[in-house]
Design a protein that fits this description.
By secondary structure, the chain is of the alpha+beta class. The protein is built from two helices and eight strands, in the order ααββββββββ. The strands form two sheets. Strands 6-5-4-7-8 form a five-stranded antiparallel beta sheet, with no helix packed on it. Strands 2-1-3 form a three-stranded antiparallel beta sheet, covered by helices on one side.
């Protein structure tokens, strides 16, 4: 079974993605919201990964949320989680957001941090081949040094295998 999984994972797309050029004249300003601000502030100021806990559902959401997505309760209890976790799933992207082929495929990971019940999507660092990784692997978030943090999700550089 493992060989079949790896054969599929190693396949690369044979054709570039189909795109339909065009534009939408739209400007927007994205805000992280109440929960997002809790997460980004803790990340920037303390280098911590902070979520919120739902007492009713026993869910710990990372990044922090303002309300529980299961029962809609307001979430006010903040909880810091360890930067280590388990790789739940992963994929490789062979194209950038403009449809241009990447020189090196970009690995993306869904990780469940220790102490969290939700998953977190980010880059998987130093991995360029599906054979290097499998679901269930242990990973650690790489957080930028304090002087280089800006209050962005990119203050987390990605995950490294441990």
């Amino acid at each position: 079974m493992k060989a079949a999984k790896n054969d599929r994972a190693a396949e690369q797309p044979k054709h570039p993605p189909r795109v339909w050029p065009g534009g939408i004249p739209l400007e927007s300003l994205y805000t992280a919201g109440v929960g997002g601000q809790i997460f980004l502030r803790a990340l920037k100021e303390r280098g911590e990964l902070v979520g919120t806990r739902c007492a009713a559902c026993a869910q710990v959401y990372v990044p922090a949320r303002a309300f529980c997505e299961r029962c809609f309760a307001e979430l006010s209890e903040e909880v810091a989680v360890k930067p280590e976790g388990t790789l739940v799933s992963f994929t490789f992207s062979y194209f950038d957001h403009d449809g241009r082929r990447l020189e090196t495929p970009q690995a993306l990971a869904l990780v469940r941090f220790e102490g969290a019940t939700t998953v977190f999507l980010h880059r998987l660092l130093k991995v360029s081949d599906p054979e290097q990784v499998e679901s269930g692997a242990r990973v650690r978030a790489v957080i930028k040094p304090k002087a280089k943090r800006s209050g962005s999700i990119l203050d987390v550089e990605g995950f490294e295998l441990i």
